Amino acid sequence: MDTLKKLRFLNINSIKILAAVFMFIDHFGLMFYPQVMWLRMLGRISMPLFAFAIAEGCRYTRNKLKHFAMLFGLGVICQIVYAIVDPNTLYFGILITFSFSTVMIYALQFAKKCTFEEKAVWWKVILSWTLFFALVTGTYLFCEKFTVDYKFYGCMLPVFASIFDFHRIPAPAILKKLDALPLRVFCMALPMIPMMYVGALGVKVTCYSFVTIPLLLLYNGEKGKRNMKYFFYIFYPLHLALLEGILMLTIWL
User: Fold this and answer.
1) How far, in Å, are 52, 63, 189, 231 from residue 216 at the CA level?
2) Which tens digit of pLDDT belongs to each residue from 50-104?
3) CA dist 60 to 63, 78, 88, 167, Å?
4) Which of 158, 136, 144 shows the shortest CA–CA distance to 67?
5) Distance, CA of 43 to CA of 16 (rounded, Å)
6) Residue ranges of the chain with pLDDT lower than 50?
7) CB 169 within 8 A of CB 112
8) Distance (Å, rounded) from C-alpha 234 to C-alpha 221?
9) What does the pLDDT read at residue 198?
10) What's the whole-model pTM score?
11) How many CA atoms lie within 13 A of 106 on its CB side?
12) Which one-letter DSSP state was computed for residue 201?
């Protein structure tokens, strides 16, 4: 058991940094060397890492409204920029994808709490689970109607990672035992299978996202020494602006 703990050396900060590096590689390849497929292959590792980080954020945050508002608010700002750059294309980026994920996870947490609280009320249980499945259905229909980054299955990655999340939920002991890292990672891998078949890059490229699985199994459940709570919110628009600026310079020169 001690040996296993020593092998788990990645904290959530490390996972976010790895995800950011692979995201930068992916977008660099997309913008400058789209014919070099190994750059896109490495980029497939990024999204599941960020998806797991989103699930962990929802697991531990105490201010759910602020957490969602930060994610969705920045997503809206990015959408405005997308609309200015390309007014003819209606495209919803990864921040909107994860905004859907976050709402569904909070609804799932609420349904669990209603189900397992000491004096559960039957109508509240039914209503809470109806709300959760309504949000899942609504997300699916939205993703079918509009172009959303990583589509419906991408929205579901963090949700599946949260299925057996019983942190701060008064669930029975037998269910608490299921709240283990390997099972949460395995559940998140399930929607990655159909995601391979709906991506524009095809199965041969998208399958590299499964490299994420052994990486996540090295997660030690810790945050890390530095406060990188807002790292993803800052890095995402910043690296896109940097790459776009470099691309414009190369065109002008």
Assistant:
1) 8, 25, 11, 19
2) 999 999 999 999 899 999 999 999 999 989 888 887 888 888 999 999 999 999 9
3) 9, 26, 39, 8
4) 158
5) 14
6) 1
7) yes
8) 23
9) 85
10) 0.93
11) 17
12) T
